[in-house]
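Reading is simple: each integer encodes one residue's backbone shape. The lines below illustrate:
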Amino acid sequence: MVFNNLSPFLKLRILNHPFPKDTKSLYFTHWNLNDKQELFTLAQDEEVGTNSGWKPHTTIEDSKNAIEKAYLNSYSYALRLKSNNNIVGHISLLPDQYSLLKIGKNEAEIGFWIGKDYWNNGYISEALTSILYYAFKKIHYKKIWGGCLDKNKVSEHLFIKNNFTYLKSIPIELIFKNKIRTEEKIFVLTKSKYDEIYR
């Protein structure tokens, strides 16, 4: 398990609780380089990447690099089906020092995507329910932040469904085949609001 530069307190909490609880359909594992073929199969789809804000993978080397640079750590999870162990997507809780949103200490940024073949099965809803409980009740984060592209109405719906509050939209520039100027919608859920809803 790779901890990078996590604080001793956060490292200890993750060591004591390394994974969110299984859901009805899914379980969580850490990524490893042996997953590069499965990641490539999912991440080469143009709609998956562009909806999530990253360039679709064109080679297995792209997927290997993504695992090495972004997923090979203690706070990123491959989502696997209980029925066959296949990876269907990804979810992460980036601690404050790795978030691009300039969040506070003891806060995290959530990110997620699901392979196109697995859309419309409720898998991300299941994963979000589990990881939010994990974030607030096991790791004891004070706030969870998230963002989605303006066009990604499915992710926006998931944030709202899970009681996140919309804060603002910020301009961003993405580079796929061409430069694309768009907006990212920023959402936040506080521990106090979560506890009030789920007490």
In short: The beta strands are 26-30, 76-81, 87-95, 107-114, 143-149, 165-175, 179-190.
